[in-house]
Design goal:
879 residues; elongated; seven-stranded mixed β-sheet; single chain; mainly beta; 55% strand
Length: 879
């Protein structure tokens, strides 16, 4: 069926296609039989044959075939098939399908454009009888046919002149298209995929509608809880309890977390609270924060700060060009999450030695980096490592500021304040400055700051910072090859400065990382050297790390050296080997070797079995230096509402056990629903999606309009919760104050007449709550009819006639479709309302015909299953 129906017509379409195919096949067979018997009915066409002055008659059949393009898809195409087994293809229709540029002549007797390259023009002229492509030209007698205003060309000419090979399978009524160059439609599809990928990376995508931030004076939403206990048999027992509450208060996010340790004296530092307001559409102030604040500071501060911060920096991620690398060590096989401005950007798994590497995108403006650590047995580091970002890049001519003030939670309640700014001079240069104030520094409590970042190339980044009375700091970061990088870092401290205690006079660091791969073997080689210059001596440290990965094997070799001045270095090597077996088994062996003493220090073997929703681990470790042994058994299991873990260890006669539980509750999910989760939910958000049948098409869920149950929705970054008890779709564990793209597809609806009114939503996640979003679904109608050609007091169906459908109230074009080869017209996808149908006036003019009647009116009524209108017929005749 050759309909230009963007919404499709589902099962009805396939039924109609089968009916038309059967009729066409029956028609061809009857024609051949009649011709063989030389009987009455003969279809003749007066055609203009190039190369002849007079018209010539021959027998042919107009049929609709399937055009198959490898790598793109299948389409319907009108062709003419003659008694001599020649195939003629509609040139304009084919070129439109494969996106070859073309322009039809004013009189409809020529078509021209270019093929493959603009330097290769073509012209098909039905009057001068010539076909010219580039410098090649032929004159053909019977290669061109003009029938009912449509231009046809014999299929072999496409291969000879245009490099388009058309192979026709008569039994299957299919034409396979192959080309000796990349078809424009394939190229466009490839570029579109690339652009979509770039758009998603940049956070931009074409959306149909948005669900903006909703503000509330108070709205209760989330509760977190953690219970942990540790027992030393015949010794002490310690317990830890944590309770967190999240809500929306005074239009902002409000969080309160209380930690209690029964072996410690309770103080105010075990209570963490924060109120945060974000509105990225504002200009002067986009973010405000009160309570426990975290900042990048020049001075060393190891206690919480209670205060306030305001910024004009948005909370969204604005990616600049370039990267820099984080390479750190944690526990083996632990999962590490990277957060930029509180948004999860990436995660990775540490290798057999605990090494993990992040390639961090450089983003515009103020940036905070946090790392969270999760063990394979469910361990979660409660502390979040905040990293100082040495680079600040700003868009050209853009200014950004931050103001902060507060009190340190120390014994003296020292005061702290900081003001800083950054300005993008151009796309290569960003300058910044500010001042920091800390009363715990007895001398030079005020620290003026100046900084500068230069990025002449996306792979080269140079930054410098000067903190008066404290330090001068510079970093050069250069990426070469594909992902290899070199970093050189130099810091000179002012002698006697008190802002950063326990620091040397100078720090010199160089890091080199080179990834490699040979067939199925991949790996990473890392070298780094650090030199600390003190007043009386120089301390040196070097590391060489090689990580290898081959199928299920992971191998890590780490050699560490450290020495003072010219003394003999102390050298030891860690060697770790991990092997992942089938059925969820994993084995890890590691050892540490002292090269100076030429002996093994420790040896370790770990066996892990992954089970549904959990792990079982057994570990044995031998310390040869102290002649001690330890055995540890761990079990971790995730329930729907809680994450559990149990550990028991035996070390030289001492037994230690521990247990842990954690989970969360999320309220306000609609219909008295409470979402229980095994992850923490405070300071996050969720969505409650209400798909409903919008009978009156007003976009609002009114009384009496039923909800629609769907089983699929696309969203990046979380999973959708489907429940049998209701039709509400719930999505949890989303980052607050962030826009998420939610996509729906009509194919997921049970009724062929239903369509999503909007398919792509950009939804702003409100903090500490499930945000309700109504998803309207409309029931569309269908219209059908016939296009006839009237001649000699007879009528018969005619194909390739363009029919347009308009809204009656404003005469706006809403749809169009082409008639089938037997004259049948059909379109599905119209919302309820009044419509006008006309045969395209431009095509009628080219054919020299009129339509009777000139137009038809019809009305589609509101119906849960969609209305149907038929008998929209037109008869065409010569003027």
């Amino acid at each position: 069926m050759n309909t230009h129906n963007g919404t499709g017509s589902g099962n009805n379409y396939h039924i109609l296609k089968a009916r038309v195919g059967f009729v066409v096949l029956l028609k061809v067979l009857l024609t051949l039989v009649i011709l063989g018997l030389c009987t009455a009915y003969e279809v003749k066409a007066q055609v203009n044959v190039v190369g002849e002055k007079a018209d010539t008659s021959f027998h042919y059949d107009e049929i609709n075939v399937t055009l198959m393009i490898e790598g793109y898809g299948n389409f319907n195409l009108d062709v003419i098939y003659t008694e001599n087994n020649h195939l003629y293809v509609n040139v304009e229709e084919l070129f439109k399908t494969i996106s070859v540029p073309y322009i039809a002549g004013n009189k409809g007797d020529s078509i021209g454009g270019f093929i493959e390259l603009e330097s290769k023009p073509y012209l098909i002229n039905y009057q001068t009888k010539q076909i010219r492509v580039g410098d090649k030209q032929i004159t053909s007698g019977k290669a061109l046919i003009k029938e009912m205003g449509a231009l046809f060309m014999e299929s072999t000419i496409f291969g000879e002149m245009f490099g388009l090979t058309l192979t026709f399978n008569y039994r299957a009524l299919a034409v396979v298209l192959k080309s000796n160059f990349e078809l424009p439609v394939i190229k466009n599809m490839r570029l579109e995929k690339l652009r979509n990928s770039i758009s998603k990376l940049k956070g931009s995508i074409t959306i149909d509608t948005t669900a903006a931030r909703k503000y509330h004076i108070f709205r209760f939403g989330m509760v977190d809880w953690v219970i942990a206990s540790n027992q030393i048999w015949q010794g002490l027992t310690s317990n830890h309890f944590s309770f967190g509450v999240g809500s929306e208060l005074l239009f902002g996010e409000a969080d309160l977390v209380v930690n209690y340790y029964d072996r410690q004296k309770f103080d105010n530092r075990q209570v963490q609270y924060q109120w945060r307001w974000v509105d990225n559409d504002k200009k002067i102030v986009k973010q405000a924060q009160v309570g426990n604040i975290s900042l990048q500071t020049t001075a060393f501060i190891n206690v919480p700060i209670i205060g306030a911060v305001i910024r004009n920096a948005p909370s969204t991620i604005r990616k600049a060009t370039g990267y820099y690398t984080i390479r750190e060590i944690t526990e083996p096989n632990w999962t590490v999450e990277l957060y930029i401005n509180n948004i999860l950007m990436d995660f990775t798994k540490a290798d057999a030695s605990g090494l993990y590497i992040f390639k961090v995108p450089i983003v515009y403006g103020y940036t905070t980096l946090k790392l969270k650590f999760y063990g394979p047995m469910g361990e979660e580091r409660t502390e979040e490592r905040t990293l100082n970002v040495p680079y600040t890049i700003m868009p050209a001519k853009e200014f950004e500021y931050s103001l902060a003030a507060g009190l340190l939670q120390d014994n003296k309640l020292n005061r702290f304040g900081k003001a800083d700014f950054n300005y993008g001079v151009n796309r290569f240069l960003t300058i910044g400055g500010g001042v920091e104030y800390l009363t715990s520094i007895k001398k030079n409590a005020v620290i003026p700051l100046v900084k500068m970042t230069i990025q002449p190339l996306s792979r080269l980044l140079i930054t410098g910072e000067y903190a008066h009375g404290v330090k001068s700091h510079g970093v050069i970061n250069y990426y070469f090859m594909k992902s290899a990088f070199l970093e050189v870092d130099y810091t000179k401290y002012v002698e006697g400065q008190a802002a950063i205690p326990f620091k040397s006079l100078e720090e010199r660091t160089a890091k080199l990382s080179v990834p490699f791969g040979i067939k199925k073997l991949s790996g990473n080689a890392n070298l780094d050297f650090t030199q600390l210059v003190y007043k009386g001596f120089t301390y040196n440290q070097g590391n060489a790390v090689i990580s290898l990965y081959y199928r299920q094997f992971s191998l890590n070799s780490s050699t560490h050296l450290n020495w003072i001045d010219r003394e003999t270095p102390y050298v030891f090597t860690d060697l770790s080997l991990s092997y992942r077996l089938q059925s969820g088994y994993n084995m890890l062996v590691s050892s540490q070797y002292n090269l100076n003493a030429a002996r093994i220090i420790t040896g370790k073997a770990e066996f892990e079995k992954r089970i549904p929703n959990g792990y079982i681990t057994a570990t044995y470790e031998r310390n040869f230096a102290y002649k001690s042994n330890s055995i540890t058994l761990s079990f971790k299991y995730d329930l729907n509402f809680a994450r559990t873990n149990i550990t028991a260890s035996f070390n030289n006669g001492k037994i230690t056990t521990s247990q842990g539980l954690q989970g969360s509750l999320a309220f306000a999910g609609g219909k008295h629903y409470i979402h229980a989760s095994n992850t923490l939910s405070v300071n996050k958000g969720g969505l409650s999606l209400y798909p409903f049948l919008d009978l009156n098409n007003n976009g609002i869920m009114d009384a009496g309009e039923q909800m629609v149950k769907i089983s699929s929705v696309k969203i990046m970054g979380s999973n959708v919760i489907f429940r049998e008890k209701d039709s509400t779709l719930r999505i949890s564990d989303l980052i607050a104050f962030t826009n998420y793209i939610v996509e729906f597809s009509d194919n997921d609806l049970d009724n062929i007449a239903w369509r999503f009114k909007k398919k792509i939503y950009s939804i702003h996640v409100d903090p500490n709550q499930f945000k309700r979003v109504d998803i309207p679904i409309i029931a569309v109608g269908e219209v059908s009819g016939m296009i006839y050609l009237g001649k000699n007091n007879l009528i018969k169906g005619i194909g390739r006639i363009l029919v347009k459908i308009y809204r009656k109230n404003n005469n706006a074009l809403v749809a169009e479709t082409l008639s089938e080869s037997d004259g049948y017209i059909y379109y599905m996808g119209l919302s309820p309302g009044d419509y006008i149908v006309r045969v395209d006036e431009g095509q009628l003019g080219n054919l020299g015909m009129t339509a009777d009647p000139p137009l038809r009116e019809f009305t589609l009524k509101q119906s849960p299953d969609g209305d149907m209108v038929g008998n929209i017929d037109f008869v065409l005749s010569g003027k």
